Amino acid sequence: MKDSYCSVCMQKAAWYSIWASLLLALLQTLVGFVAGSTACLAIAIQSVSNIISSFSIIITQKVTAKEADEHFPFGYGKAEYIAAGFTCIIFAVVTLAITWIAVKQFMNAPAALMDFSPFLVAVASIIGNEILYHYLRCVAVHAKSPAIMANAMANRADSYAAGVVAVCSLGAWWGLPRLDAVATLVVALLIGRVLYKVFLDALAGLLDKSVNGAYEHKIYELAHGVPGVGLVNSLKTHRTGRKVKAELEILVERSKTVQEAYAIAEGVRTKLAASLADLDDVVVVFKTGKLGACCKSAGSSQPAGEMI
């Protein structure tokens, strides 16, 4: 994270989300029942879901703060992805509930909505959710937290949904009451679209998807900057919650002793750990071989010469 301010934000982010979502949920529910707007009730259900998923962030922070132990030697970082998946499950249930409400209302003959309050609540929801989205996204990016990012994306979905409700509530107010049901259905579709992406990201984290694309160039550059490194033969990386684990194999000149080769590998490990804050664990192994001229290229990833 950038500084201590980011750390403070991370500790408070979930509680800010809970109180803001609670306020929106109460307002949306009140107007939904008073004005007879199922679209307002639909976004109220979303706000309640945000509260539940925010509590999952609080629990996740306590779990991921634990140090690695004999039962979990690689730490508890993947709890972040479990929390993100939990958020997806909650909102999937919400999406099904909202869809059922929308279809039921659309099939019935709705009464005309002569209340302007659903539009005002929708506008307030857009503003509130956009503020939460940008705040939580900022915290998630600096904290490298998939769980907080999942909540941020949920708030962005809520913002889009509230926009649809605002437009359709005006139509219902002008004498097209079925637009309220249409808005409810569109809300469900928007939630599903956002959650699909969040779910794929969480699944990729649980399955140890490589993050070479984000770190490969920098790691190669730093490793080749250590005297004695002829080539980086291979690199494997994956993210564990907020941190990244890396394993790379370097090639050193055959004339080096084992002690010298070990010192070079240790130099690479130390340099990477000091230069890349995201790296939680770095494993560097070495092989010796006859280095060819192409080993001078820092961008090369193919072995040069004979390896033993």
TrEMBL record:
Underlying gene: mamM
Gene3D superfamilies: Cation efflux protein transmembrane domain, Cation efflux protein, cytoplasmic domain
Record-level GO cellular component terms: membrane
UniProt keyword annotation of Transport present: yes
Residue ranges occupied by any Cation efflux protein cytoplasmic domain in the UniProt entry: 216-284
Alphabetical UniProt keywords: Membrane, Transmembrane, Transmembrane helix, Transport
Native source organism of the sequence: Fundidesulfovibrio magnetotacticus
Entry's Gene Ontology molecular function annotations: monoatomic cation transmembrane transporter activity
Annotated transmembrane regions: 12-35, 41-60, 81-103, 115-136, 157-176, 182-200
Localization, UniProt: Membrane
Protein name, entry field: Magnetosome protein MamM
Pfam families: Cation_efflux (PF01545), ZT_dimer (PF16916)
InterPro entries: Cation_efflux, Cation_efflux_CTD, Cation_efflux_CTD_sf, Cation_efflux_TM, Cation_efflux_TMD_sf, CDF_Transporter
UniProt similarity note: Belongs to the cation diffusion facilitator (CDF) transporter (TC 2.A.4) family.
Topology in the lipid bilayer: Multi-pass membrane protein
Cation efflux protein transmembrane domain mapped to chain residues: 15-207
First-listed, main subcellular location of the protein, grouped into a coarse class: membrane
